[in-house]
Amino acid sequence: MADTTEVFTADELEAARVLFAHQAEFVMGATTIPGLPPPDLPEVAFAGRSNVGKSSLINGLVGRKGLARASTEPGRTREVNFFLLDGRLRLVDLPGYGWARVSRTTAKKFQNLGRDYLRGRPNLKRVYLLIDARHGLKAPDAEALDALDTAAVSYQIVLTKADKIKPAEAAATVARTAAAIAKRPAAFPRVLATSAEKGTGLPELRAEIAAAAWA
Fold it and tell me: Is the Cα dihedral 7, 61, 108, 112 positive or negative?
């Protein structure tokens, strides 16, 4: 895996740890753009294919197993879900893409909701696009990258489930992914390998989020 420990100082990593140790609570799930909360706080959003581990990663970041509801059922997240951290930062769980068990009409509805959120949210600081480390970038992910570039929203690739493969394989996937996004205009160049189960990469991701939220 890529070593990101030198990117942040020990003080920055500790400050991020303290931030994410504060109270985190579910605020609401929105199914329409008018139903979103007011854009009065910085937000970072998590996107990715269905079952990539968004809920597990959010729970791992805040150290709570049941905050974001994880499921083995593809496409469970069908709203834009908002979580409030320390009363000053919103974590946003976007509907997944690449469903196999919902109709095309249903899938399009929730994907369009996510795209509308990305295009029109002025307080959105960064999107974290989650990619399964075992598989790397796939065709549906490329479509998501195109949408993010079009929306001109800063995004960063986060590899999930990195504990499921060998460290050398994870490092190779990080390198391939970084090369694949190198020329994309809205992509943040650093790729993180994480494991919600083992905690790998979560301290660095917390620091990335804190830096992006108040940049």
Answer: negative
Residue 108 CB neighbours (<10 A): 11
What is the end-to-end Cα distance of the chain in Å, rounded? 26
Q: DSSP states of 78-128 as a string?
A: -SEEEEEETTTEEEEEPPPB--SSS-HHHHHHHHHHHHHHHHH-TTEEEEE
4 in any annotated domain: no
On the question of pLDDT at 78 being above 70, the answer is no
CATH number, residue 39: 3.40.50.300
Q: What is the pLDDT at residue 165?
A: 95
Give me the domain span that covers residue 173.
10-213
Exposed, middle or buried: residue 155 (CB in 10 Å: 0-12, 13-18, 19+)?
A: buried
Q: What total of structural domains would you count in the chain?
A: 1
Q: Please report which residue ranges of 4-85 form alpha helices under DSSP H.
A: 10-21, 54-62
- Residue for token digits 């996107």? 47
The pLDDT score that the predictor gives to residue 6 is 63
Secondary structure of residue 134 in the 3-state scheme: coil
Does residue 176 belong to any structural domain of this protein? yes
Could you give the dihedral angle defined by the CA atoms of residues 77, 141, 60 and 202, in that order, rounded to the nearest 10 degrees?
Answer: -160
